[in-house]
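Running co-folding for magnesium ion.
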Amino acid sequence: MKILVVDDSGFARRALIKLINEQLEGWEVTDTGDGKQAVSLFRQHQPDLVFLDLTMPDVRGEEILEEIRSFDRTSKIIVVSADIQQKTRENVMALGADYMVNKPINAEKIAQALTTVMC
Ligand SMILES: [Mg+2]
């Protein structure tokens, strides 16, 4: 399984990758802090699963989500954000996200997200 992690915070990426590592075996991860690279990395690696931050300096996660969904409907996309507003959640789900996790993340939230999108 291939996973792409997109978050402008290196700390957030490392924390997330550590939690995924504790819960999944046999996966290959690509990660980037540069939102502008996210779509080309997606095209290059064709991940099964994407963890996507919303708030990044150069590009909104919503734009990345919309662009990926314009050509791919099969990958699972989990939005990870500190934005807990209901309208944000509704918007990302309408744009084609499969699940949304609120920061700060922990093992339970990531386990729940993985279970939900993998079934
Ligand atoms: Mg961010």
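Result summary
The mean pLDDT is 97.
The domain at 2-113 is CATH 3.40.50.2300 (Rossmann fold).
Job closed.
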